[in-house]
Structure formats: structure tokens, C-alpha cells
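Action item from last meeting closed. Structure (347 res):
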């Protein structure tokens, strides 16, 4: 069994936003298939998880000692800040501690770099990089960085369709949501970059919009209170606390909606869209990241539209989304993600 070192910032619960979920699900898979050691800043107690207290660049004698003693054959690094210049520097430092390790860099979205940093990155590049973001994939190609476009992971043991409509009504009662309304849900940070105001016309048209915010939203990503107040004034329901069984919100919904258009306001493949489809919930979304590349219309369960035309598009597709749309490609994407990472590790 190959020795693999997995490095990321956060491995601690709650797992309520895309990057944390991806890190945790990747950890579970690596822990099952390889001899694994983990280095993180925040995690939970397990014999192969090393919680370290270090500087921004992750440089410390403790980390160096862990790597030297473990002698990993492969290092997988997934930074929470994604492809920042500091992430490339950390990657080079990790590789210097274990020069024979096969290095895999997983970055979920692009980050702007200064001109001199772009030049430096050419000399800091990893053995292989992976991303769900077409923009980052294309950028790496310009730098001749060996890379691969990959989808993201969905926990299909949790995210799955309900057995019947009665269960759907029970969930609506559980969360004190209107039982007879057409519920349109969205999961994500409450900030301007999510384009949440585009959901107001749907609410005004008689649908019930429900927005579930992330309890892990960093302070610098939080929106103004005025945004929340404006949405509440339109009778949009906002749940800004941690929901342990978030799959139940997808399951009780008639439609999941993803209005983000601004770059870097979401990871390159929105995990919430995958989770909604795994629950059999139809999705109305902007053409964001690699969604269309991997899912297309997902057996009739995904519809694409510019957010300013969401209401018009909804009126057109409403007869279609009342059908049974539980067939999905999501499980195929899980297999593709793991096969790509495992192939790099096993080289």
C-alpha cells in the first residue's frame, strides 16, 4: 500500500460548504485506499492526523519532521485558498522536504496573480495539478503545467432521493416550511457575489425561495446585513444556521437554483448542484464553471439560464420538472475524480 501524505488547512466539522466537503470526502477515500498521514491546521483526533500550529507558509520543524519520518511516496495538497501564490510556495516547500514524492496539487478555483508571480509560478509548478475550473485549467495550460480537469465528489450515502411524497411533506413540517408551496432552494454564502437578488422575481411570482447560508462563511466573505434584510423583506426564507442533515433541504425542494455568475464566487464545479441532483431534485442554474462540461442536462434534470431570465425560463420548464428526474450522472463523476487522483498517486 502506497504511503500518501494529504495536506490541507481544515479537516474539522461542520462540513457545510464545498471546499470542506471535498477535503473530507477525499480524506475518507485516501484513508481507505492508502497508508495515509494528514497534516492540517484544524482537524479531529485520529492517529494519522497531525494538527499543526504554524505560520502562513506552513513552514515549521514539526512539519518537516513529519514528512521526513513518513517518507511519503505521494503528496496530495488541497489548499483552502486555492491557487494563490502562497499555495505554490507551500507546494514547493513540501516537495523539498520529500524530493522523491510524487506531487499532486488540487485547486478548486483560480486566483489572480501579479505579473511577477505568474513568472515565478512557472518554476514552482507541481508534478500534476487538478481542478474543476475550466478557467484555471486553461491558465495552467498557458504555463505548460501538466494538469487535468476533474469533477467533484458527492457523498451518495447521504445525498439520495426520497422514497415518496409523504416523506417530502414530513420534512417540510420538520423545518416549518409551507407544505403546499413550490419551494425553490439555494445553498451558499450570503454575499453579493452569489447574485441572490436574482431570486427575488421568483419569490414575487408566488414561489417560496429558501436560502440556506453556510455556518463556515469566513468573515471577509460575509455579505452586508442590508442584503439579508432586503431578501427577508421580500419574504424569502433565510436559514443561516448549521443544518446537520442538509440533504433534507434538497429533498423537500421542488427545484434547486444556482444564480452565481461572478468568477471566484463559487468553486469551479458547484457542489450544491451535484448534491441536489443526487437527491433527484431538478436544477435551474447559470452556466457556471464545468457544470455543463460534465453534466450537460443530466438526463433532463438540469436547465441552464441567465439569472435575469430565471422566471421566464422557469415558466417554460415547469411542466418538465414535475416529472421523475432521479436519474443522474453524479456517481460517474465520483468514479472519474477518484480514478484521476489514484492514477497520479500510483505512478
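Sequence:
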Amino acid at each position: 500500500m502506497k504511503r500518501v501524505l494529504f495536506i490541507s488547512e481544515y479537516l474539522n466539522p461542520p462540513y457545510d460548504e464545498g471546499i470542506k466537503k471535498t477535503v473530507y470526502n477525499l480524506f475518507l477515500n485516501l484513508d481507505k485506499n492508502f497508508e495515509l498521514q494528514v497534516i492540517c491546521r484544524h482537524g479531529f483526533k485520529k492517529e494519522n492526523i497531525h494538527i499543526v500550529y504554524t505560520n502562513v507558509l506552513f513552514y515549521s520543524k514539526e512539519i518537516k519532521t513529519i514528512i521526513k519520518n513518513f517518507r511519503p511516496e505521494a503528496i496530495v495538497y488541497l489548499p483552502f485558498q486555492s491557487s494563490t501564490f502562497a499555495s505554490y510556495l507551500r507546494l514547493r516547500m513540501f516537495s523539498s522536504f520529500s524530493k522523491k514524492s510524487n506531487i499532486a496539487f488540487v485547486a478548486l478555483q483560480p486566483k489572480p496573480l501579479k505579473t511577477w508571480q505568474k513568472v515565478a509560478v512557472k518554476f514552482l509548478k507541481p508534478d500534476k495539478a487538478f481542478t474543476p475550473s475550466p478557467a484555471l485549467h486553461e491558465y495552467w495550460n498557458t504555463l505548460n503545467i501538466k494538469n487535468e480537469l476533474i469533477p467533484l465528489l458527492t457523498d451518495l450515502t447521504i445525498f439520495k432521493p426520497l422514497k415518496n411524497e409523504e416523506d417530502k411533506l414530513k420534512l417540510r413540517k420538520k423545518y416549518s416550511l409551507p407544505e403546499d408551496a413550490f419551494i425553490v432552494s439555494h445553498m451558499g454564502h450570503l454575499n453579493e457575489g452569489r447574485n441572490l437578488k436574482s431570486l427575488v422575481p421568483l419569490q414575487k411570482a408566488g414561489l417560496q425561495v429558501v436560502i440556506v447560508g453556510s455556518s463556515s462563511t469566513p468573515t471577509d466573505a460575509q455579505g452586508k446585513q442590508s442584503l439579508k434584510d432586503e431578501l427577508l423583506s421580500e419574504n424569502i426564507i433565510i436559514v443561516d444556521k448549521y443544518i446537520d442533515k442538509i440533504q433534507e433541504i434538497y429533498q423537500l425542494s421542488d427545484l434547486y437554483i444556482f444564480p452565481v455568475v461572478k468568477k471566484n464566487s463559487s468553486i469551479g464545479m458547484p457542489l450544491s448542484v451535484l448534491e441536489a441532483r443526487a437527491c433527484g431534485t431538478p436544477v435551474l442554474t447559470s452556466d457556471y464553471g464545468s457544470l455543463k462540461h460534465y453534466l450537460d442536462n443530466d438526463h433532463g434534470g438540469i436547465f441552464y439560464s441567465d439569472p435575469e431570465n430565471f422566471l421566464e425560463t422557469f415558466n417554460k420548464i415547469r411542466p418538465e420538472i414535475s416529472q421523475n428526474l432521479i436519474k443522474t450522472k453524479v456517481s460517474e463523476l465520483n468514479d472519474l475524480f477518484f480514478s484521476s487522483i489514484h492514477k497520479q498517486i500510483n505512478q
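Note appended to the action item: The radius of gyration is 21 Å.
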